[in-house]
Amino acid sequence: MKKTWILVFMVMSVGKALPQDTLILNESDRLTGKVIEINPGIIVLQNTDSLGETNRALMKSSVAIAKYGNGSVDLFPQSPEQMFEKGRKDAHLYYNNIEDITGPLVGTMMLPPIGVLITYSASYDPVYIDKEQVSDPAFLYDKNYYEGYQKQARRIKKRKAMKYFNIGAIPWVIVAGIMISR
Q1: Model confidence over 13-49: pLDDT tens digits?
Q2: Can you spell out the DSSP letters for 121-171?
Q3: Residue 3, SS3?
Q4: Which numeric CATH code is attached to 2-75?
Q5: What pLDDT was estimated at residue 7?
Q6: For residues 67 and 22, what is the distance between their CA atoms, to the nearest angstrom?
């Protein structure tokens, strides 16, 4: 009897372990299931859960990438403006390279003119994008997405560099204020 239950459990588990398809929507949401139909305007995704099988029809324009269980990938082109905006949104959500800009804080605390130079150079250094810093690495091959990500990430980096410069300058401002008041 025990072997029968183990066999039943294994058979039920195999169905869930089969590779599933994943749709990545324009807003970076992910849906899993089995893609059963792709028409010129609609993608039909079959989702199997505890309630049974349900089919969900999605507008093709709302889907950015389809990753299939066999490892193949389909990219659904979007307008350049949409991809640029998606890159900007992803940079806002995922970009957080703080180690790139700690130099302004240290340089300013040592000597403010050095801090100014370090802040300027840190804020204009190129932004390096890791594959973990995007909603899906396949987007990095789109020129407009990459440009949008770069622009927003550079803006974030400049803002952080100035913040650290200002924090590093506080002790010098206090010392200068004390010296002037004497």
Answers
A1: 554 555 688 888 877 788 888 898 888 778 888 887 6
A2: HHHHSPPP--GGGSS-GGGGGSHHHHHHHHHHHHHHHHHHHHHHHHHHHHH
A3: helix
A4: 2.30.30.100
A5: 53
A6: 5
Single-letter residue type at 180:
I
Token readout for 71 is 């490892």
Q: Which DSSP letter does residue 58 get? A: E
Q: Provide the 3-class DSSP secondary structure of residue 30.
A: strand
Span(s) in the chain for CATH 2.30.30.100? 2-75
Q: How far is it, in rounded angstroms, from Cα 156 to Cα 148?
A: 12
C-alpha–C-alpha distance, residues 146 and 140, integer Å = 6
Q: Average pLDDT of 73-89?
A: 84
Quick one: DSSP state of residue 51?
A: T
pLDDT of 26 = 76
**Tokens standing for residue 59:** 């507008």
Q: Look at phi and psi of residue 136 and say left if phi exceeds 0, alpha if psi is from -120 to 50, else beta.
A: beta
Q: Flag whether pLDDT at 89 surpasses 80.
A: yes
18 vs 35: CA distance, rounded Å = 14
